[in-house]
Amino acid sequence: MAEPNYFSLENQTTTEQLLFSIYINASIGVLLFLIFIFTRPHRPDLYSPKKKNPLLPRTYVTWLYKLFKIKDDQVYESAGIDAIVAVKITRLGLRFCLFSLPVAFGVVLPLNYFGHAQQKGFDQFSMANIDSSDHGLLPVHCLALYYFTAVLFWLLHSQNMDFVKLRMKYLQKGSPQQYSILVKGDDVERFDDQGIYALFSDLYPSAVREAKIIQFPYELKKAVRKRDNVLNKLEGYMWRYATSSSAKRATLKKTVQGVRNYVDAIQFYTNKLERLNELVKREKEKPHEILGVAGFVTFRTLQAATHAVQCIHVEHLLSLVVKSAPEPRDVCWTNASVRPRVSLLRLLIMKFATAILVLLWIPPIMFVQSVVSVSKLSSYFPRLHNFLEAHPKILAFVSGALPPLILLAFMSLLPLLCWYLAKAEGYEAYSWIQLAQIEKLGWFYVIDVFMVKFYAGTFIATFQSILQDPQHVLRILGNGMPKIVTFFINYVSALGFITIPLTVSKIIPLVYQFFFLRCRNLTPRKKKLVKKLPPFDFAAFYPPCFLVLNVTISMAVINPFIYVAALFYFIMASFLVKYELLYVTEQKFESGGWVWPFCVKFTFIGMIISQLTLLGILILNKSYLAIVACLLLIPSVSFYIFENKFLQKPAHYLPTTVALAVDRRRGYRSPNLGTPSPDTGCIYMHRLFSTPNSVSPDEEILEKYKAKLEEVNCKL
């Protein structure tokens, strides 16, 4: 009996695989979106808890139109600069797709379709349908690539100009952190508060308002943590007793004065809470350890703060490092206490560890993708071959829809890992840690998902053909590369149809709240925690955006159908960020919109990959047009350098002339710098210094508990 041809089974018509996988993804997405549409009017606490923005009607459909009509100025005023930058990133992808579609579908697609390579199904629309007799068509592909690159140049330039204007508007607001700087280094260790104040007062006479060396209350942190745990346990026992029908109180088996006996749980934790309240009070009153490594200096004028953050104050750079201060709620106090030399060493180590991890992440991805392939499954289970041949729908699901879904689940494990890697690099603000996390995830997506799947996947998919016909390896690779586009169309459609509706529909919080809010022993404090929604996860949003931009730009010429999936994804992503940031989530801090340079960087990478890919296909097809495609690299690199150096650099800091104008407009009066910590007058103090000296159970719990005691006493 002949051996079954697994490879031919793997390469059955790609049109059926693509359509069936899109059908599966669309069915899941429509179901999730319908759940959101019909549940939203009845659960405003979950789907629209923010009330300060323009209210949307509690209808099923018409509110979508009003949401998309909201202007950028309203988004900026209501949700901040990070929200408007997220909207602009989705708009960049949306506009690129719209401006490129006429050329892609009107010129490139017909040329590919009428090629003479005799491809079947969906591959007939890709460059795989161009053979050696079609070399006269390749100049049009080169011209199309030049057009797509020009469109991208124009869009990036205009968006960069908008970003600079946004940054200037943001920096002129006069937020508390814009009047402050973060100072670190050996020189800081030699001073106390008065010494730092005197140092900068000499450099900026009459401009320094306050200076404070960072204090980190280690013992106070332990005491507050213990007190919070005891308070939660006490509230749990009190609520259980107050809501039960029994008059019997819970007991604990504890050792008291060497004798192990049962004690009343409520009384035991009440006494323990009183002792911990006294401990917290004593810890707050005693002098705390001054770390002496970093401090904050706040100025009276915006001009002085702007000048200080841009100057080199000492000869040795690590002796006194000056940075823009983050928001007080944004400070990562554990990293702020790290010396600059140690921070630099940790940064280098974590960058190296990230690079190694990106490389080590490749084999698991390739293994997972190979295991779920039809050829591998059929070789492991020979009977599966005949089953898949008899059921084409299941074959289309396994070969088309399943690999992208598994890859999505596999990549969802990365954000938490990248967060810890970014935090270990020593950034002093959580927003800076989040930006580093986004950058790391972006590299994971671009290298491990896109480049590895595109180039390594091409080689794996054509390996059998290369073994059978090794003399034509270049032609086989050149024709096999466009066929990988099918996987990415499936992947992008899965992102648009599944991940975004899953985020918007809040299925996980909905199920979580449904079960936990019905728990009888859940205290009011814990109910509030269950109902509280986490902030919008930018780290889970931006890297897929960068990936879709890369995929769309890189495969614009190879197969224009990628635009359809990308266009749908960016429409859904634009809806997601607008709705979530305006009506659902509250952000803990702002990064100042600094994710935009990452978008420009990864877009540039996609631009270069698109040019190198077409260059490789032309070389593999032995076309002289490879020289024409190669020449496009020069203006692309020059454009990126120009945009980065002359447009993005000025957005880092407010010009001193503009800062002086702001000070004159305000009469040189510094704004309200927020709520200072008790007995310090400085807003840049650890949040533990503002914790109450004494805490007690929640009012609702106390009232029910007292009512229960009165009821029991009356019965007695």
Topology (elements, then pairings):
Elements: H1 6-10, H2 14-39, H3 44-47, H4 63-68, H5 72-79, H6 81-113, H7 138-171, E1 180-184, H8 186-189, H9 193-203, E2 208-215, H10 218-243, E3 251-256, E4 259-264, H11 265-285, E5 290-299, H12 302-310, E6 321-324, H13 333-336, H14 340-360, H15 362-371, H16 374-380, H17 382-390, H18 392-411, H19 414-424, H20 430-461, H21 463-468, H22 473-480, H23 485-505, H24 507-516, H25 524-531, H26 538-554, H27 562-584, H28 596-620, H29 626-631, H30 633-648, H31 656-665, H32 699-715
Antiparallel strand pairs: 1-5, 1-6, 2-5, 3-4
Helix pairs in contact: 2-18, 2-23, 5-6, 6-7, 6-26, 6-27, 7-28, 7-30, 10-11, 10-32, 12-31, 14-19, 16-17, 18-23, 19-20, 20-26, 22-28, 23-27, 26-27, 26-28, 28-30
The biggest beta sheet is recorded as: 4 strands, antiparallel
> What distance separates the N and C termini?
89 Å
Class of secondary structure makeup: mainly alpha
Mean pLDDT: 80
Helix content: 55-70%
Number of domains: 2
Poorly predicted tracts of residues = 1-13, 470-474, 675-681
- Determine Rg (CA atoms, Å): 31 Å
Strand residue percentage? 5-15%
Brief digest:
Helices cover 65% and strands 5% of the residues. The protein has 716 residues and is mainly alpha-helical.
Description:
Strand 3 and strand 4 form a beta hairpin. This protein is mainly alpha-helical and 716 residues long. It is globular. The chain folds into two domains: 6-174 and 339-654, no CATH class; 219-287 and 686-715. The strands form two sheets. Strands 2-5-1-6 form a four-stranded antiparallel sheet. Strands 3-4 form a two-stranded antiparallel ribbon. The model is unreliable at 1-13, 470-474 and 675-681 (pLDDT under 50). 65% of the residues lie in helices and 5% in strands. The chain has helices at 6-10, 14-39, 44-47, 63-68, 72-79, 81-113, 138-171, 186-189, 193-203, 218-243, 265-285, 302-310, 333-336, 340-360, 362-371, 374-380, 382-390, 392-411, 414-424, 430-461, 463-468, 473-480, 485-505, 507-516, 524-531, 538-554, 562-584, 596-620, 626-631, 633-648, 656-665, 699-715; strands at residues 180-184, 208-215, 251-256, 259-264, 290-299, 321-324. The chain contains 32 helices and six strands.
